[in-house]
Amino acid sequence: MSQITREQIQHVANLARLNLSPEEEQLFIENLNEVFAFMDKLNELDTAHVPPTSHVLGITNVMRADERRESLPREEALKNAPEHEDGQFKVPAVMGE
Amino acid sequence: MSLLERNIREIHQGLCKREYSVSELVEESMRRIDSVDHQVKAFLFRNPFALEEAKKLDELTTPDGPLFGIPAGIKDNIVTKGMRTTCASRMLENYEPIYDAAVVKRLQAGQAVIMGKCNMDEFAMGSSNENSAFQITRNPWNPDYVPGGSSGGSAAAVAAREVQFALGSDTGGSIRQPAAYCGVVGLKPTYGLVSRYGLVAFASSLDQIGPITQNVEDAAYVLQTIAGHDPLDSTSARVEIPDYTQALTGEIKGLKIAVPKEYLGEGIDGEVREKIHAALHVFESLGARIEEVTLPHTEYAVAAYYILSSSEASSNLARFDGVRYGVRAEKSSNLIDMYKETRSQGFGQEVKRRIMIGTYALSSGYYDAYYLKAQKVRTLIKEDFEKVFAEFDLIVGPTAPTTAFKIGEKIDHPLTMYLNDILTIPVNLAGIPAISVPAGFASNGLPVGLQLIGKAFDETILLRAAYAYEKHTEHHKARPVLHSSPGE
Fold it and tell me: Is B443 a catalytic residue?
């Protein structure tokens, strides 16, 4: 694998919604390069004809009856929200000032 | 003898005969926490209502719960209604869940008394408890050493006899490795046996809740209470739950035990190897048949696991965005900034590292090379086990390659830390059950764990063999020496 660059780390951090300090960027460049070099070990195995396992139980869709049930009181659902107003979660402006 | 030295069945009998009350038992646990937890640091929060709950149980005319009055610790990634649940993260510092996890409800139905929430690596990511945002739990056998992780607080609390048992969660070894390091019993059930409803998700296809106890019999009692189908967890299995205590016969004649050569080879400490060989002699003397086998893809498990678990984590932890719960960074100019600042301030370094690994592995252009490849290798690892279990009842080996390491020894070397999980990770990838039981002490005075691995949903065989071993050894009876705080 080619080396992970600072630009790539910044791109991935943005995807992950993280702000990294320059020191963190440097640390994660080193860490990820080391970790992914180790993960390249998997390429020693020929898996062309091996099916992937996403789940061990082998169950697919689990359905339940479409019945009306009591839901969480709004007050409870908002209890842990950092900010709420008029019974809704409140967030900063989407577009900024 | 302290009441907390007895096993659950003995305590239950004493309570039924009114030799002592639940209040006395709970007070004893509270005193023990008061006197030793300043050293061990296993608890993040104490349940302020524990004694009140005990008094209510004392008023009952019939103690019919299987865990009636038994003091328990709960890992802090399992939600408890009205009782702070932080996952040892700044992100959830003030989070008070509005519901109880399924396992908490089951413990309450079984009339156990929750004493508090146990420390862990932040969001269960780590093998040493050093990743907790709040405190470092100490190994009760030597405070300079880690208790293991991520359920380090749960294992240390049980080893220090602060509680009779604790619940942990195991994604890549997080119940078994700390149990081994602390010299107690840790059981990771088959994926799907115990509901994950209310377990804060790390890697949903691998996470499983299980008991950490002082002995194998107690593990059977606790598992009995928490196992079973739950409609609120769609990955919960619809299987008949056997009476696990029936497995505790002490009889294992004719049992076919496989010993993978990869589990006793290079990288495994010589003293650990010795203890495992001694354990194999015990099994042999009890009439088990032992044969060496191979699990050829073991060396690929760590790489596959860190791709899959980090990918799932990067997705699961997207929910911590400062909107519905947890902390929120102040003074953000817009929504995206608020997300980023909140997550950057709320998550610790290891959590960020895993999110970065997972996001990178799932990002455009790399998905096939990493995530899909790891899923295929997961199939190969699962097949390794299936081949062995076609001919054997049980796989036996060490739980960890070494005894506990020193605090600070590995924290700056993520890959070295990850490799420590080499013997526990394959079990999670295959979704099968395993138990770690005390197998003696190395010359440094630290415990060694023996790992027994079984077929899916065959916890009965695990418990049967582990119980037989325990009955014929004395390792689980050893106790760490802890100094009480002044005034105790």
Answer: no
pLDDT in tens, B369-389: 999 999 999 999 999 999 999
Q: Which positions ≥6 away from B466 have C-beta within 8 Å?
A: B185, B216, B219, B435, B437, B452
Q: What is the CATH number of domain B3-262+269-295+382-477?
A: 3.90.1300.10
Residues within 8 A of A (CB atoms), B 423-462 only: 429-431, 456
Determine which one of B35, B132, B169, B174 is catalytic. Answer: B174
Supply the pLDDT for residue B488. 42
| Residue B449 bridge partners (DSSP) | B438
| CB–CB contact B352 A20 (8 Å) | yes
Q: What residues are paired with B292 via a beta bridge? A: B259
ipTM of this predicted structure? 0.95
Token pair in block for residue A69? 């049930």
> Residue B150, preceding bond cis, omega within 30 degrees?
yes
Residue with tokens 């088959």: B190
Nearest CA in chain A to B375: A52
SS3 state of residue B440 = strand
More confident of the two residues B67 and B62? B67
pLDDT at B71 over 90: yes
Q: Whole-angstrom Cα distance, residue B180 to residue B127?
A: 12
Task: Assess whether B150 carries a catalytic annotation.
Answer: yes
Total CB pairs under 8 A between chain A and B: 167
Which superfamily is assigned to A6-44 in CATH?
Glu-tRNAGln amidotransferase C subunit, N-terminal domain (1.10.20.60)
Distance CA B179, CA B398 (A): 12
